[in-house]
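ok new one. same drill as before - structure tokens go in, u give me an amino acid for every spot. 511 of them this time. try not to just spam alanines like last time pls lmao
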């Protein structure tokens, strides 16, 4: 989904009224045949996007294996690129949250899905590997945790005082008595503050990039993050991988020496070369275990959306108007809650108003601008019934289109039901949101990543971040209005997801 496409849709709708303005009854809107088409398309997009997420994660696994076999700067950069690409399809799936779909629930009811193991943040980076601390960007509110399940500091709190007293051994990499395996990574997000996240995309991100420090490998204080925009030597970065000038810059020595199958007795026995007492080996082992768990978790979600799967069958089977309303409520709740509470509030406004680097979604790689774009794009995908694929070249254009979907969207359903005016209004709102998040992306690509855009000197009401928050708030209101118009009596923008008042992007959130 691109702005030019939305602009064309808006213009076409304005001229043709997108199906007219004749009001239809709730009974007409809930035509079961049309609702089934909406549900089938929604499920098709989910399966496609999660399938692409698995494929991209498998490519990341391959890049990490190559890096483990030859821990060179070139292979580290290739692994970083693979991580960034892996985020492109996954970011578009976040709209399937908040509705008891396979990402959040294994049985369409219990809150036991793998979401927290896949994409939770803020990360407990101080539990994983060494960090630098200060009292601003890297203070206790950033790196501290209230408890942990991996045994660091006896399972108690980790803060700047006890961390500094014993560094660097109070972390998984430094404490060689801790075995790095899949069971270890199950101890994620167990603390009261849930800051003890040690698995998923962001754990891999932290090990690849490290903290987002300045050019002298020193901490920033919230006013000087522009100094953390790296200027790499010419041999370290080419025009094709210029994105490496942002984010952390973990030294390659952290990964040397490594272990690989060539030094084992056979290609099938790579662990024979692994020495758990060597920290560089432990970093590679952590990456290996983390990406395997990530793939397994993503596969479990993908499989829930496959043809014939219990969840998909239950979701797409509607025989009564009451069932149709229930399933539509789920879709609108994912769209509305992601728009307002989660994306505008938790993922943007908290960081924006607190000038908090730790609260940005991808703080180690400075990839938060893409998180915002992709999450918002996923909402549009659900509305228009289309999925264009994902960007494997990191140039902002979707080029991996093998699993693309072009189906029957909510916009089609509204127009066919005589609710063309509502369809136009949400189309216009989505277009306004895209215009603003595109500007966030443009600034990031030009050298002002999200953590620079939220600095006090830049965090104005007319900034693209504030305007995106307002646009997301507005589109959520229209989503709620459409839900009410089609007969949904439940709240589709969950007020408990965030304490932020996204109608006022400059207001601090009561966390």
């Amino acid at each position: 989904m691109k702005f030019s496409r939305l602009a064309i849709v808006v213009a076409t709708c304005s001229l043709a009224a997108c199906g007219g303005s004749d009001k239809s009854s709730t009974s007409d809107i809930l035509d079961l045949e049309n609702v089934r088409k909406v549900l089938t398309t929604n499920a098709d997009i989910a399966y496609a996007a999660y399938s692409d997420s698995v494929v991209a994660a498998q490519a990341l696994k391959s890049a990490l294996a190559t890096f483990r076999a030859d821990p060179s700067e070139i292979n580290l950069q290739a692994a970083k690129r693979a991580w960034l690409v892996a985020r492109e399809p996954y970011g578009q799936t976040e709209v399937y949250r908040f509705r008891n779909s396979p990402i959040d629930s294994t049985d369409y009811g219990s809150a036991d899905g793998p979401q927290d193991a896949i994409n939770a943040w803020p990360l407990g980076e101080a539990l994983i590997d060494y960090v630098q601390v200060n009292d601003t960007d890297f203070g206790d509110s950033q790196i501290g945790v209230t408890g942990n399940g991996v045994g660091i500091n006896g399972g108690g709190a980790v803060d700047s005082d006890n961390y500094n007293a014993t560094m660097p051994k109070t972390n998984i990499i430094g404490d060689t008595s801790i075995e790095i395996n899949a069971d270890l990574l199950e101890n994620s997000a167990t603390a009261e503050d849930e800051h003890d996240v040690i698995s998923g995309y962001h754990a891999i991100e932290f090990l690849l990039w490290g903290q987002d420090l300045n050019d002298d490998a020193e901490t920033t204080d919230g006013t000087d993050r522009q100094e953390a925009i790296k200027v790499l030597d010419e041999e370290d970065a080419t025009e094709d991988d210029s994105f490496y000038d942002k984010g952390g810059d973990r030294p390659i020595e952290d990964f040397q020496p490594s272990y690989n199958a060539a030094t084992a007795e056979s290609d099938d026995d790579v662990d024979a070369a692994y020495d758990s007492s060597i920290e560089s080996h432990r970093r590679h082992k952590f990456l290996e275990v983390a990406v395997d768990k990530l793939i397994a978790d993503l596969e479990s979600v993908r499989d829930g959306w496959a043809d014939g799967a219990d969840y998909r069958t239950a979701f797409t089977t509607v025989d009564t108007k009451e069932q149709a309303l229930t399933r539509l409520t789920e879709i609108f709740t994912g769209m509305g809650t992601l728009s307002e509470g989660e994306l505008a509030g938790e993922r943007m406004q908290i960081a924006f108003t607190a000038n908090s680097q730790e609260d940005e979604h991808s703080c180690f790689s400075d990839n938060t601008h893409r998180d915002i774009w992709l999450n918002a794009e996923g909402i549009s995908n659900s509305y228009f019934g289309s999925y264009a694929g994902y960007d494997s070249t990191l140039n902002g254009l979707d080029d991996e289109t093998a699993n693309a979907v072009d189906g029957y969207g909510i916009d089609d359903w509204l127009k066919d039901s005589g609710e063309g005016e509502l369809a136009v209004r949400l189309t216009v709102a989505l277009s306004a949101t895209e215009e603003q998040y595109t500007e966030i992306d443009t600034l990031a690509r030009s050298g002002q990543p999200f953590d620079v855009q939220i600095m006090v000197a830049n965090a104005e009401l007319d900034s693209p971040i504030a305007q995106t928050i307002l646009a997301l708030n507005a589109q959520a209101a229209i989503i709620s209005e459409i839900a009410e118009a089609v007969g949904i009596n439940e709240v589709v923008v969950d007020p408990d997801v965030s304490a932020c008042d996204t109608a006022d992007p400059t207001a601090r959130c009561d966390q």
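Residues 1-5, 7-22, 231-244 have pLDDT under 50 and may be disordered. and btw The CA atoms of residues 30 and 69 lie 57 Å apart.
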